[in-house]
Amino acid sequence: MLALGFEGSANKLGIGVVRDDGEILSNVRHTFITPPGTGFLPRETAEHHRAHIFRLLREAMTEARVTPDDIACLCYSRGPGMGPCLNAVAIVVRTLAQLWNEALIPVNHCVGHIEMGRVVTKAEDPIVLYVSGGDTQVIAYSMQRYRILGETIDITVGNLLDRFAR
Hints:
By secondary structure, the chain is α/β, with parallel strands linked by helices. The chain contains 4 helices and 8 strands; from the N terminus they run E-E-E-H-E-H-E-H-E-E-E-H. Helix 1 runs parallel beside helix 2 (about 85-100).
């Protein structure tokens, strides 16, 4: 089974094809880059995603040597992330799912990162400190479910590091 995945929750837009055994057949990305010392704004970042998503889709499918008929499902980051960016990608993915008559699978952005780590490390029941941009959580996987054991309610470690780096 092949899944076509879309990620566009912040300034990086990515599209890839992955097999159900975890083998990545393609993983193409394009990053919205702003001038040094500035951040990326949601509206401009979403415009970037709209401008590049179809080119990346063609590249991902060409690199993986697949057609829409080979794809079993379409996956996309549902959140958390920057709303306009998530919406720009979701609209394209929902449209493709209808046109291609494929299953549509929304994915929690944080869980997507953790799942990739599980595939690479072959971890069975990890406990993870998830740090990414605006999200800092302690998450555990047990009995085929993720559970948030704790999370920050003020400035997150990811935002702290982002601000320090700027």
